[in-house]
Each structure stands twice: as structure tokens, then as C-alpha cells.
Amino acid sequence: MAIALPKTTEQVAEIVKWANDNNIAIVPSGGRTGLSGGAVASNGELVVAFDKMNKVLEFEKTTQQVKCQAGVITEQLQQFATDNELYYPVDFASSGSSQIGGNIATNAGGIKVIRYGLTRDWVMGLTVVTGKGEILELNSGLIKNATGYDLRHLFIGSEGTLGLITEATIKFTRPPTNLTVLLLSIEDMTKVTELLNLFQKDVDLTAFEFFSEEALQKVMAHHQLPRPVETQGAFYCLLEFDADSEERLEKALESFEAGLEQELILDGVMSQSQQQAEELWKYREYISETISARKPYKNDISVTPDKVSEFLAKVDNIVSEQYPDFEVIWFGHIGDGNLHLNILAPESMSYEDFTAACEQVNPLIFNVLKNLGGSISAEHGVGLLKKPYLNYSRSDAEIAYMKGIKAVFDPNNIMNPGKLI
């Protein structure tokens, strides 16, 4: 295995042409924060890493668009927006190390999707190198462009199987003015859809997250944090909204009081400052880091928000029956139907046996997803780990078309072979 560290799009194109001439497979590497094995080079492939393509190239204040190289760190782009009194809303736990190219290749989501959408919604143009080594400029930052197929969207979420993303034109938006957080304890997850509907009716939410009591206990113990609300619940919902006026704040309080009256909420606390909002977010954002030492088996899955309660109940039954001795940690983005199921490896069990036990139950969970029209991968991609289960979310006809598209862009099958399809 070798690693190439190009600095320009032209260098990437030369690498791809050389790889074609020598029948060498390529694996793209961004910030290496993926969880589906999409950037794993397990067969001696040439790794093309974008760490040295990390520059902001152009910024246009009028259109609020920035052009940057694929290796720019997410947090770097967020700070660039802030420095220009703007806002890049795609945000997640790995923003300090994930790269823009990787975010685009997996169509990353995160905690703000309910208000701002996925990475796809902020990409105005791409420069890519196809599997043939051809450089394509896709859309060029245009807002309106009715000239046939928008190939930009084929590369978003393609996981490096069609070619390599080298530059991106990203749009910004105005920053929120007074982000306020509500942390609520609830009795069970059957109430979560009603609670979401209650707040969405009058409150413009920027986030609607949830996590289990088990997750909260892990975070409190690991980070020595106090219990955030007095009344313990089985689950907790964290809501964020832009309280840019007294009227909006009053609407949120009215929704909270209605939730208490309708017995959807057991207890809750609202931030009174930016610092308090950040403190409340810790209970949600620290979960992944806290449980990482236990080598969790992760399932990143989704259904439409109206089916979340039904899905959770069914999967919880499967997990309880199949994993009676395993610890299960739930958290996720309820506002867009994205759930993270984390099963913790027992210390007395080998990781190989633990993984095998988890994999045996995957078809049961994915059958529930299929029947509810859900996805086996909400935001982490397919990569190697989810590839055997792709047929639970994609029909045979869809997979055949996907393979046909790959053959057009990458006829020699050198671009991240063995991933996705």
C-alpha cells in the first residue's frame, strides 16, 4: 500500500490516469472519521489523501458562497463563515477532524438537519476527477441551471466510487441570533412524535435530539456532570431553537407547558444564556466519546419522523430479546428520523464473538426498516460494513442502475472498489 498526497486537482487527475494505466485501485481518504469502512484500504490499494488540499480558494460576499479544496476541515469552514458574519450549519461531533470532501462523499447530516438539511443542500458546485482521470466542473455555483442532468448530485453520497471530489463551492446563510436549548425528560419513546408535532407547530426548531437514560448515566459518570433535570425519565429530548424575539420565546414556553399538561413531558430545563446552552448540549454531544472505550457495535438507521415511535418500539423488542445481557445505548436525531443504536461489548466476551452476535440480529432489525420504508444507513454511508445489507433499502433495479452509473464514470473499476455496491 502507498499514500499519495496531492496538492491540486491536476495532480489528482495525473494520479488517476497513472492508476488506470497500471491497473491500481484507489481509495480516497479524508479526515478518517467514517464508521462504515468506506476509506479502508484492505487490498493494497493506493490511498489518495487530501490533507494537503486544505485551502479556501475564493469567497463571494454577494452570493455568500465559498470555494474550497476537499481537504478543508469542517470546523475550519464553520469558522471562516463566522469570521465573515455568516453561518455554515452542517455540524456533527467530528467537525474538528472531518474534511469537506468526505462530508460530501457521504452526504453527512448531523444535529441541525431538521432546520438546515444535509450537506447536499449546501453544495452549489463541485470539481471532480472521474475514474477515467477526466476533470469535470459541475454546476459552478449556479443557483439556476436547467441544462439537463445535474451530475453534481451523483457525486454527493457516492463514497468515492465514481471519482474523487477535489474542490467544492459551498453556500453559507445568516447566523442564528439567540440559540436556546430545552432539555426535557420523557416517560417513554411512544410520546416523542406527539412532542415533536407539538413544538413544530409554533416553534422553528434547529435541532430535536434524543438519548436514553442509560446514555445520560454514562455521560454524567465519565464527565462528572450533574443530572440536568430533577425528574428522571427513560429518555430525554434536547430541543434547540432560535429565540430571536420575545414572541418566539413565549411560543416555546407555551409548547412546554402544553407538553406538561398533556403528560408528554415529565420535567425540563431551558438555557438562559449561550454558556448554559452549550452546557446542556454536552449531555448529548459527549455520548459517542463516552462509550467509545466499550467498542460499541453501531447501527445508524432512519425512518420518516412519523414512524419513529413505531420503529423504536419494534427494534427495542428485538434488542431486548436478542441481547438480554448486552448494554444498549440509544441516541439520535429524532427531528429527521435518524437513530443511533449502540450495543456495548461485554468485557467478558471477545470482540469477534460480540460482533458475530450483533451481525446475526442485523437482518431482523433491517427487515423492520424495510417494512417501514427506512434506510440501513442514515448518515454514515454504506462502505464495507453495510454493503451486504444494501438490498434492504435499495431494490434490485436501483442497484443495477447504480452499477451502470459506476461503469460509465469508472470503467476499469479502480475507484474505491468493493465499497457501496
Q: How would a textbook summarize the main sheet?
A: 7 strands, antiparallel
Q: Which CATH C-level class of the largest domain is it?
A: Alpha Beta
SSE series: EHEEEEHHHEEHEEHEHEHEHHEHEEHH
What's the structural domain tally?
3
* Rough outline: globular
- The N- to C-terminal Cα distance equals 23 Å
Within the largest sheet, what's the order of strands? 12-9-11-10-14-15-13
What would the CATH topology of the largest domain be? Uridine Diphospho-n-acetylenolpyruvylglucosamine Reductase, domain 3
Q: Estimate percent helicity.
A: 25-40%
Strand content: 15-25%
Specify the CATH architecture of the largest domain: 2-Layer Sandwich
Assembly status: single chain
Mean pLDDT: 92
Uncertain stretches of 5 or more adjacent residues: none
The total of helices stands at 13
Structural class, from helix and strand content? Answer: alpha+beta
The count of β-strands is 15
Radius of gyration: 22 Å
